[in-house]
Specification:
Chain lengths: ~150, ~120
């Protein structure tokens, strides 16, 4: 956590003036995104480096998911209006990705010799991949204006 | 030995999750006692990490491969301390919720570790 501000500033202004996105429920969100980053990055790095030929599509999609998670986590930690908007767009893209890949894996399982992070809508990850972008977007929308 | 410890950590992690979840439900941040609980769980996971590495050094092979086994051991070791540190920056019930979520993640990792280690050792 680069943000050394330990006061519970619920109005959300960081010391440098950026709007904090990591407060209250946002902390839980960052934690879950962080877990998904570690999970997706290490999983795709391992699979791509050791057995990429077995399921190139599945492993590439996992890598894309990992990038999306990493970017959203970074945006949330960084805070500020630009980061909030960028994270919102990425959450929407992530949700679209989960739904598309999830449907794809259900309809055409033969295209996926191995599972991806987003297979069956993220069932292997307790459906967190499909729940997370929705809660993420709800949270980011609520943080839209500082009520100025 | 390793299997017993894995099961024990899984149970301890769920207990920690319930405890911190209870604190969140009562609208309380994590307190000293919670951090002691996190420390106990972390010591158990550290012991698991050491025993796991010793067993690997002795030549035992996890069912699903050494790299995955070590990655999960390290991930399990990091989960609760990381969530605990986050909860220090958020002195509201959301800090407690985050630690509870971290403990659940640890419990899931232990289930996976149980499978990854498999039946070779025990």
């Amino acid at each position: 956590m680069p943000d050394a501000d330990t006061t519970t500033d619920v109005t959300g202004a960081a010391p440098d003036g950026r709007k904090r996105l990591v407060s209250g429920p946002g902390l839980l969100l960052v934690w879950l995104y962080g877990v998904m980053v570690v999970g997706a990055v290490s999983r795709s790095a391992y699979q791509i480096s050791t057995e990429f030929d077995r399921a190139p599509l599945a492993y590439s999609l996992s890598a894309v998911a990992a990038l999306a998670y990493a970017f959203i986590t970074y945006s949330l930690v960084r805070g500020g209006e630009t980061a909030r908007r960028a994270a919102l767009v990425c959450c929407a893209a992530e949700l679209a990705g989960v739904l598309a890949v999830g449907t794809w894996t259900v309809l055409r399982p033969e295209a996926f010799p191995d599972t991806t992070v987003w297979s069956q809508f993220g069932m292997g990850y307790l459906f967190i991949p499909v729940i997370l972008p929705i809660t993420g977007m709800l949270w980011l929308r609520r943080r839209r204006t500082p009520d100025a | 030995m390793l299997d017993a410890l894995t099961v024990a950590i899984g149970v301890a992690a769920l207990a920690l999750a319930a405890w911190c979840g209870h604190a969140a439900w009562r609208d309380q941040p994590t307190k000293d006692w919670h951090f002691i609980g996190m420390a106990v769980v972390t010591v158990l996971v550290l012991a698991q990490l050491v025993i796991g590495l010793v067993k690997l050094a002795q030549g035992e092979k996890p069912d699903e491969g050494t790299v995955i086994f070590v990655a999960y051991l390290v991930g399990a070791f990091a989960a609760v301390p990381a969530a605990g540190m986050l909860s220090l920056t958020e002195r509201t019930k959301w800090g407690s919720v985050t630690v509870a979520a971290g403990a659940v993640v640890l419990a899931v990792l232990e289930v996976r570790l149980y499978d990854i280690w498999g039946t070779t050792g025990a």
